[in-house]
Amino acid sequence: MTQQIKDTLIYENQEFYLDVELIEGYFLEFPEKRPEFEISCSALWKGYIAQFEVKNDELCINKLEWLTDIDFNMKSLREEIFPENKFEWYSGLIRIDDFKGEFGDEPKDGIFEYLEILNGNFKQKRIFNYSELQEFKKAQYEYFLISEEIEQVYDFWRRNNENGIVKKDFVNKIILKNIMQYIREVYV
């Protein structure tokens, strides 16, 4: 599999490669806003490259460039899609540490850094060692299971599980494993 070109985030004048695609959730909720181009690239399946920045305690979209042709020409669509620049739609945790590797690894000797964002507003930077992160994830999972957010996840799995093969216990295991990507609100 070809490694994908990653979006970036600037925080305190340092650029980080993101392992999550912050804008994809927005396009899932508002598919009519996603531009359609007839070109694809094995290193850029999503079709665009985004650059974010935490500036003045806001998550801003500096660039959103869309792939337009086979020669890798790009078209800037940031002002067209996000004219306000602030990415108010996003809430969640953005991981920025150097320990994540290619697959979001969590080595036992790692220090894990997350930026907490709520409705496009920077709340705080959270730093964990391995055991602190595991405890945080476990607590987040417990709160997530009793939150209103959980029904959206279950609904997604119900819609995509017509044969009833995937059971709720299995879905909960997936949520626990990926809790940092599922949460939009930090509970603890």
Describe this structure in a few short sentences:
This protein is of the alpha+beta class. The chain has six helices and eight strands. A hairpin with a 2-residue loop joins strand 7 and strand 8.
How would you characterize this protein structure?
The protein has helices at 22-29, 78-81, 130-145, 149-159, 168-177, 179-182, and strands at residues 8-11, 14-17, 48-55, 58-67, 74-76, 92-95, 111-118, 121-129. It has 188 residues and is an alpha+beta fold. The chain has 6 helices and 8 strands. The chain is globular, with a radius of gyration of 17 Å. A hairpin with a 6-residue loop joins strand 4 and strand 5 (74-76). Helices cover 28% and strands 27% of the residues. The model has no long low-confidence stretch (mean pLDDT 88). The chain has 2 domains: 8-81, no CATH class; 92-182, no CATH class.
Tally of individual domains: 2
Alpha carbon gyration radius: 17 Å
First-last Cα distance: 37 Å
Overall average residue pLDDT: 88
Fraction of residues in helices? 25-40%
Structural class category: alpha+beta
**Judging from the principal axes of the Cα atoms, what is the shape?**
globular
Biggest sheet strand line-up: 2-1-3-4-5
Poorly predicted runs of 5 or more residues: none
Largest sheet: 5 strands, mixed
Strand element count: 8
| Beta-strand residue percentage | 25-35%
Element order: H for helix, E for strand: EEHEEEHEEEHHHH
Number of helices: 6
Summarize the topology.
Layout: E1 8-11, E2 14-17, H1 22-29, E3 48-55, E4 58-67, E5 74-76, H2 78-81, E6 92-95, E7 111-118, E8 121-129, H3 130-145, H4 149-159, H5 168-177, H6 179-182
Parallel strand pairs: 1-3
Antiparallel strand pairs: 1-2, 3-4, 4-5, 6-7, 7-8
